[in-house]
Amino acid sequence: MTNPISDPLTPNVIVDDIASVVSLESTPEGIATVTINRPARRNAFDALTIEGLTEAFETLHGADHVRLVFLRGAGPAFCAGGDFEWTRQAEQLTEDDNRADAMTLARMFKHLAEIPAVTVALVHGAAFGGGAGLVACCDYAVAVKSARFAFSEVKVGLTPSVVAPYVVDAIGPRAARALFVTGRTFEAEEALRIGLVQELADDAHALEAAARRLVQEVMAAGPEAVVEARRLVGEVKGRPIDHGLMEEMARSLARRRVSDEVKEGIAAFQAKRKPSWAG
To answer: What span, in angstroms and rounded, lies between the C-alpha atoms of 10 and 63?
Structure first.
């Protein structure tokens, strides 16, 4: 299959042969939007959707001009997880074939989690199973207050295996264990409390307003600094604050202090103007 995303630098690029299920749009300013477009199936995953999302996320790894990526679902839901009919087909596969199939799903989540740009999930309706996993993979999530979440795999005898690393990282082992073993549905308020989402919106209009505000916030920051700040989280997570880590972080800060981006940022501040990257 040829790569359906022809040019990540062109505004409003849409994947061709999978445009019915996944779209990728970008603007000259560097704002990209990935939309799952299976509203009749509540944007549930099937093989084609997974392929489309993987290709979109891979493309964003190479789109150097993109600074902010929104992930959203069309229609009444964000993403209801695995499509039931697609899941049933796994019964006909061998364990080895199932492992290969599951790896395609695992790679999709990893590609999302490692996009260099800031990633934001805009959540409405249901975010169940792998849909909630998508939320956990993003840097930031805004949910409509009426949104609902669940890691419901155990209800049908499955486990949230491929999303578990991202969910545990996002909300911690205690909260993840409680939600994984019960499979219960929880509200947006609880998702905010445990850290799965970072902000609530009253309704769809407020969700769009939050997205516009985030554009302003992200575009006001130094693009190189943002990429490095994201990387820092992974570099320090779980490590003891010893002399080695302190030296490593000191070197990181020293590099930034002599960078052209910092020089421009300080010059803009002193001149009371916007830095070049803010337009």
So the answer is: 10
What residue type is assigned to position 161 of the chain? S
For residue 264, give Cα distances in angstroms to 150, 151, 259.
45, 45, 9
Q: Could you tell me the pTM of the whole model?
A: 0.90
Q: What is the dihedral of CA 132, 167, 49, 157, to 10 degrees?
A: -80
Same domain for 186 and 62: yes
For 44, phi then psi, to 5°, come to -70, 150
**How far from each other are the two terminal CA atoms of the chain, in whole angstroms?**
38
Residue written as token pair 């997974």 = 50
pLDDT of residue 279: 67
- Active site members: 153
**Which residues of the chain have a pLDDT value below 70?**
1-18, 86-88, 90, 279
State whether 28 and 95 are in the same domain. Answer: yes
pLDDT at residue 17, rounded to an integer: 60
Report the distance separating Cα 222 and Cα 269, nearest Å: 13
Q: Which amino acid is at 259?
A: S
Residue 273 covered by a domain: yes
- Residue 16: predicted pLDDT: 44
Residues 261/224, Cβ–Cβ less than 8 Å: yes
Name the pairing type of β-strands 118-123 and 22-26.
Answer: unpaired
Give the pLDDT of residue 3: 36
Helices (H) and strands (E) in the chain, counts: 11, 9
pLDDT of 88 reads: 66
Predicted local confidence at residue 179, as pLDDT: 98
Q: Rounded to an integer, what is the distance from CA 278 to the centroid of its chain? A: 23
Whether the Cβ atoms of residue 227 and residue 60 lie closer than 8 Å to each other: no
Name residue 63's amino acid.
Answer: A
For residues 253 and 161, membership in a common domain is answered with no
